Amino acid sequence: MIRAYREADLTAVMQIWLDTNIKAHSFIPKEYWTGNYPFVEKVLPQAEIYVFEENHPNEIMGFIGLTDHYIAGLFVKEAAQSQGIGKQLLNYVKDNRSSMSLSVYQKNARAVSFYRREGFEVQSENVDDSTGEKEFIMVWEKN
Fold first, then answer.
1. How far apart are CA 60 and CA 134, in angstroms?
2. Mean pLDDT (10-residue bins), the chain, 143 residues
3. Pairing mode of beta strands 48-53, 2-4
């Protein structure tokens, strides 16, 4: 089930954020993510967030965060990946928007492939100032 984020979700959402970032971005030192944790924990609730919750109450398996038409993050617990949860979250927010954009590290081939499959196209490339890593700016537009 997909539902709007609640304050009580913060701990579970942040754990997914941390674990997934460390695993998916092995090319970035773990300390980058742990060091940014307090900042993200503070600003995350300001975004528009939807969580995917399993049948078990309070078992959040993934979430998507947006700022207007920008996808600030899409995260799914490692054990729940490749089960369609990310696609469901993405489709949920696509229903209410005519276009969206996001940034994704070029070295995160799995995510780049996922977004391409879901209709996103690379619009430009740049370098993330905080990590020095190349990233794609990808855009989706409703047909």
1. 30
2. 94 95 95 96 94 83 95 92 93 94 96 96 96 97 90
3. antiparallel
Structure tokens at 96: 């209410």
In this structure, which topology does domain 2-141 adopt according to CATH? Aminopeptidase (3.40.630)
Give the C-alpha separation, 68 to 53, whole Å: 23
Task: Map out the domains of the chain as residue ranges.
Answer: 2-141
Q: Which residues contact 79 (CB under 8 A, 6 or more apart)?
A: none
Q: How many CB atoms lie within 10 A of CB 49?
A: 19
Angle at 27 (CA atoms; ends 31, 17), nearest 5 degrees: 55
pTM of the model: 0.93
Q: How far apart are CA 24 and CA 9, in angstroms?
A: 22
